Amino acid sequence: xxxxxxxxxxxxxxxxxxxxxxxxxxxxxxxxxxxxxxxxxxxxxxxxxxxxxxxxxxxxxxxxxxxxxxxxxxxxxxxxxxxxxxxxxxxxxxxxxxxxxxxxxxxxxxxxxxxxxxxxxxxxxxxxxxxxxxxxxxxxxxxxxxxxxxxxxxxxxxxxxxxxxxxxxxxxxxxxxxxxxxxxxxxxxxxxxxxxxxxxxxxxxxxxxxxxxxxxxxxxxxxxxxxxxxxxxxxxxxxxxxxxxxxxxxxxxxxxxxxxxxxxxxxxxxxxxxxxxxxxxxxxxxxxxxxxxxxxxxxxxxxxxxxxxxxxxxxxxxxxxxxxxxxxxxxxxxxxxxxxxxxxxxxxxxxxxxxxxxxxxxxxxxxxxxxxxxxxxxxxxxxxxxxxxxxxxxxxxxxxxxxxxxxxxxxxxxxxxxxxxxxxxxxxxxxxxxxxxxxxxxxxxxxxxxxxxxxxxxxxxxxxxxxxxxxxxxxxxxxxxxxxxxxxxxxxxxxxxxxxxxxxxxxxxxxxxx
Length: 514
Description:
Helix content: 25-40%
Distance between the termini: 67 Å
Shape: globular
Strand order of the largest sheet: 20-21-19-18-22-23-24
Number of strands: 24
Strand content: 15-25%
């Protein structure tokens, strides 16, 4: 029988790991040579799944990434398939050592600065797209907003420098506590989209009697509009206008007045320090933490060295790996802000949900067994540089470098918050084939394995699975970084070409709907 080296058929991430991750799947009976001795594969193991490198007793910890990812629910033999049938989540006590991994960042000198073609805005930020937005305060005005958008379906014909008119609609805005946490988060998100550097101008549309009053939101969130004659955004309410038709006509006239000004915007040479990357993973598999996530982390580190910003999010999907982020916190204050968010989530989920109720069925089919395993692979998207700040959902991101935003793990809700915070490029890793897109921010899809990339090439922007074939991680990280610059300069992403991105606006509804 032919014997192969384990490293030919699987990935060993750390010498101390109890498992290896299969590259292309393993057949029962195959003999593999490991540093710990020969392994005989005891069951067919799919790609991206785990094979045991040594025996683990029932109740014993199982390690991947050099960290505990769960505990054996039954005795595991060397060569076994390790997954949900013999591995489960368990609490792991880990010390919170603030800042022990903080190292000076080797910043590039000013003369080495890279550039992209972007839209310089009045507030000093730089856009990567140039949209006009119609923003609904409440679901009751969503249809009117959509009707307004539809009047400008061919807007690029007359205004070639405008990427489109988008309707920012949602399912909330009323039956919530006025000025409560839910209400304030919604206002942050709507204002964040309206004031986003990828939005040249906007109109606000409300019903008139909702909790989320348009005028109150505009004043509280400091929503100005430099392109308007008086610097204030147009507000249209259906009840004040006299009904749907009149509100649509009025809002259409407001958009029509703004379009010529928005069309005056031109791309100019801008430093890449003005790029802010939103990182996210969806439909993750066992390869995510080996290929796309760490390669994206390399690109984030590179951007930070130029003075740019990379943002990690999805708090429930970093649960169990927070100790590694604490080690990167630049101060006790930043570390405490992070830990406070995890405590809030434990309170938020009390009696209704469990923080370990993860991963999803698709994640499990792709080889991820526990939330610990998913989290340890997920934080790789954030690279290795110091954690500079922690911000609330949808909060404006003002720090440069590596930042964490508190968001749910659900992709559209997470990214809605990241975009509201000011991110102007999205990098989205996927192993199962998520087709997520966003407007007004371009979404670059990074496939974690080549099979998904080939099968869904019309939707995937880059193939990170080549790392499994021996392509250096740094090479793929560099490819991601260059793609970010190209997309920031106007190159359309696959999701943009497919017309995806508007329905994915999904503000986090935190509290009860009354």
